From TrEMBL:
<dbReference type="Pfam" id="PF08137">
    <property type="entry name" value="DVL"/>
</dbReference>
<dbReference type="InterPro" id="IPR012552">
    <property type="entry name" value="DVL"/>
</dbReference>
<dbReference type="GO" id="GO:0048367">
    <property type="term" value="P:shoot system development"/>
</dbReference>
<keyword id="KW-0472">Membrane</keyword>
<comment type="similarity">
    <text>Belongs to the DVL/RTFL small polypeptides family.</text>
</comment>
<dbReference type="InterPro" id="IPR052153">
    <property type="entry name" value="DVL/RTFL_small_peptides"/>
</dbReference>
<keyword id="KW-1133">Transmembrane helix</keyword>
<keyword id="KW-0812">Transmembrane</keyword>
<protein>
    <submittedName>
        <fullName>Uncharacterized protein LOC111306294</fullName>
    </submittedName>
</protein>
<dbReference type="GO" id="GO:0005886">
    <property type="term" value="C:plasma membrane"/>
</dbReference>
<keyword id="KW-1003">Cell membrane</keyword>
<dbReference type="GO" id="GO:0008285">
    <property type="term" value="P:negative regulation of cell population proliferation"/>
</dbReference>
<keyword id="KW-0217">Developmental protein</keyword>
């Protein structure tokens, strides 16, 4: 049982690293979207004809 639990822990660590990369990419994408939305809102609020 010790062998299977240690191998499961090793697999869990590798999955954790992969998920952290995916999470980082997701957060970067959301940050970019929020920036664009914020710029559009400011442009609409400051619109003068």
């Amino acid at each position: 049982m010790k062998i299977s639990s240690s191998s499961a822990a090793a697999m869990g660590e590798s999955k954790k690293k992969i998920s952290c990369r995916k999470l980082g990419g997701y957060l970067r994408e959301q940050k970019g979207r929020l920036y664009i939305i914020r710029r559009c809102v400011v442009m609409l609020l400051c619109w003068h004809e």
